[in-house]
Design brief:
The structure holds two protein chains of two kinds. By secondary structure, chain A is of the alpha+beta class. Chain A has 17 helices and twelve strands. The radius of gyration of chain A is 33 Å and the shape is elongated. Chain B is of the alpha/beta class. The chains are: A alpha+beta, B alpha/beta. Bound molecules: adenosine-5'-triphosphate (ATP) and magnesium ion.
């Protein structure tokens, strides 16, 4: 064993209990980081993956981000006039220039689009009423932008076209209505049109908000039901590269004026919660690591204080300042490495334990047990941070030790 | 060409700065040749230890120079001084200063390991031989707290000799020893100087022991006393 290492370890062995406590502190920080980040990253990645799978990457709506300006405001742009009690002119709803938009999108590489008409309907099955959203789709186009066909747990997407009036229900909608494949339900729109529809499919995406509230029908049928012939009010886009969603959305909105949202904007609230969650996690873990570092700083400072005579003798023998500094930095490093190793084991155990738990949760998403991220990322990050901060914590006392003047110590005698 | 002195002090002065500056060593002119065994004597507080630290490159003078084997040391960096201590100088302090976690053998091995010029078995053999030569054959594997004060002091001497230094500096190495052991140590020192050509410079209070040396240097109030 190298001399410097054996001296460093002899010091730690001398302060065995304090050293063990410091190692434990580092191990706790590391294992918590691994456990928590595995759980949270697993959940977040799963959520984002599901959102990307099930939601349009970009959604164009027949709305404006700002309400249109009133004629009075246009006429007197700088007037200090307050208008109240005005009722805005009833905009003819719908994406009137849908053709042009679809043509423009067709020219963008790696972007697929499907026009839809979305609206509210009331489903009645037996004595039960369920209020749901209905999206009118063209199955051939729908395949390009969503995984609806894959998400079906009963029935087939093509049956939508072959049945007279087919409807596909979310799993939660089917549960609430008590309807099963082949049942006839009555759909009534706010426009007052009612239609008898046959359940030709049931889907499950795992995202509660969708499964519990969404249904699909043919675009033509939806237009009849909503009494909006030839109207499109949503265009849903799928991108080959999801990172371009913001940019594509901005381009479309600038060009056509319609409110166009990327999936990041649509999931802004949840993604914002993730940021807060991560912030809390990282600060908790950092706090643990900082406490552990104080522990390390404390042990090494104590050792330096106790070992001034040894330091003096080593320097008189011919140890340079950097050799002395290395001894004590090595002590911090040793605590960091030992703590990291224990933390890896503990963290791995925690992840495996969480993986073994089985339970049903229904929040943003429905899942059995924890979705865990097992990538080495957490290990590398936690191990790196712990080792680096342990070394840093040892650096200050080590520097002080290196600067000690042997004569000041030997002169003092025993 | 004449051989340079092993250790040479020119106009050597050390003043501790402060509100009331303390003069430890004042204007010392001294040279000790290879193969010479010299003792430094003088009353307590006369600056013997301080002079030894300066000659051993543990402290830097306020004025004047120290030359080791003819080489000026004033411009050396602290790393260079450390390297020179490792190669040329052996130190025995007034108090033993062994590393408590290491055995007698382990302590003697430290300077050799730091220097790293010998293979491990050769280092061990040399350390064992040094301890045996100082009558510590059975105590090699004991830790300092299992040794008597005199035994510890002898381990410290063995350690000072570990890297085969040209110059051995000792500050009252026999303070804890009985008369017979003290004599043995001084006989060893004389042999190191006369038979192996080293320079030995030791502080002692004991005039009988001082008489065994080739030369006696007396300090009074930090100055060399010509009268002695
Ligand atoms: N840090 C200090 N501050 C003030 N005075 C000091 C300091 N260190 C040493 N001295 C003084 O310097 C003088 C020389 O000290 P030094 O240790 O060299 O003497 P010495 O000859 O070795 O004495 P002894 O025989 O007792 O070991 C003493 O008078 C001592 O009190
Ligand atoms: Mg002294």
């Amino acid at each position: 064993m190298p001399l410097i290492l054996s001296i460093a370890l002899s010091h730690l062995a001398h302060r065995r209990r304090q050293t063990l406590v410091s190692i434990l502190g580092v191990a706790l920080g590391v294992s918590f980081f691994i456990g928590m980040s595995s759980m949270m990253r697993g959940f977040q990645q799963d959520f984002v993956a599901r959102v990307i799978d099930t939601q349009p990457h970009v959604l164009i709506r027949d709305e404006y981000r700002r309400p249109p300006r009133q004629p009075a405001e246009i006429a007197h742009p700088s007037a200090a006039v307050g208008l109240s009690g005005l009722e805005p002119r009833d905009e003819p709803r719908g994406l009137r220039d849908a053709r042009a938009i679809l043509d423009a999108i067709a020219a963008m590489p790696g972007v697929a689009a499907a026009p839809t008409l979305s609206g509210q309907v009331l489903l009645r099955f037996g004595a039960r009423d369920v209020s749901v959203g209905m999206t009118g789709i063209e199955p051939s186009r729908e395949r390009l932008v969503s995984k609806l066909a894959d998400d079906l747990i009963a029935g087939r997407l093509d049956d939508l076209s072959s049945a007279a009036n087919g409807i596909i229900l979310g799993e939660g909608v089917a549960d609430k209505a008590g309807a099963a494949l082949g049942d006839m339900v009555t759909a009534t729109s706010p426009a007052g049109v009612a239609m008898r529809m046959k359940v030709v499919g049931i889907f499950s995406t795992g995202i509660t908000a969708i499964d519990n509230f969404e249904t699909y029908a043919l675009l033509k049928k939806a237009q009849i039901l909503q009494d909006r012939p030839d109207t499109i009010n949503r265009i849903r886009l799928k991108l080959a590269d999801i990172e371009r969603a913001d940019e594509v959305a901005r381009r479309i909105e600038t060009r056509f004026g319609w409110r166009t949202e990327s999936w990041q904007e649509a999931s802004k609230n949840v993604l914002g919660i993730f940021v807060i969650q991560n912030g809390i996690m990282y600060s908790t873990v950092s706090a643990i690591l900082i406490v552990a570092c104080f522990g390390i700083f404390n042990v090494i400072s104590t050792v330096v204080f106790e070992k001034v005579r040894d330091i003096a003798i080593l320097k008189s023998i011919g140890f340079a300042e950097r050799d002395v500094r290395r001894i004590f930095v090595l002590e911090g490093l040793a605590v960091g490495v030992a703590g990291t190793a224990c933390g890896f084991l503990l963290g791995y155990g925690m992840v495996e334990f969480m993986a073994s738990l089985e339970f049903e949760i229904e929040g943003f998403v429905r899942s059995q047990g924890f979705v865990l991220d097992r990538s080495p990322w957490a290990y590398v990050t936690a191990g790196g941070a712990a080792t680096a901060s342990a070394t840093l914590a040892a650096w200050l006392p080590a520097r002080r030790a290196a600067k000690l003047h042997p004569v000041d110590i030997v002169r003092g005698g025993g | 060409m004449t051989t340079p002195a092993a250790v040479e002090a020119r106009h050597l002065t050390r003043v501790l700065p402060g509100a009331v500056p303390v003069t430890l060593v004042l204007d010392v002119e001294l040279s000790v040749m290879p193969g010479e065994f010299a003792v430094i004597t003088g009353p307590s507080g006369s600056g013997k230890s301080s002079l030894l630290y300066l000659l051993g490159l543990l402290d830097r003078p306020s004025e004047g120079w120290v030359l080791i084997e003819g080489r000026p040391t004033a411009d050396l960096s602290s790393d260079d001084m450390a390297a020179l201590r490792l190669e040329k100088l052996g130190f025995v302090f007034q108090f033993h200063f062994l590393l408590p976690e290491f055995t007698a053998l382990g302590n003697v091995l430290i300077p050799m390991r730091r220097r790293g010029t010998l293979p491990e078995p050769a280092m061990r053999a040399r350390a064992a031989a040094l301890l045996d030569g100082l009558g510590l054959a059975e105590h090699r594997d004991k830790r300092p707290d299992q040794l008597s004060g005199g035994q510890r002091q002898r381990v410290a001497i063995a350690r000072a000799l570990a890297n085969d230094p040209a110059i051995l500096l000792a500050d009252e190495p026999t303070g804890n020893l009985d008369t017979a052991s003290a004599r043995t140590v001084f006989e060893t020192f004389r042999a190191l100087a006369h038979d192996q050509g080293r320079t030995v410079l030791t502080v002692t209070h004991d005039s009988t022991l001082a008489a065994m040396a080739d030369r006696r240097i007396t300090l009074v109030d930090g100055r060399l006393s010509r009268g002695a």
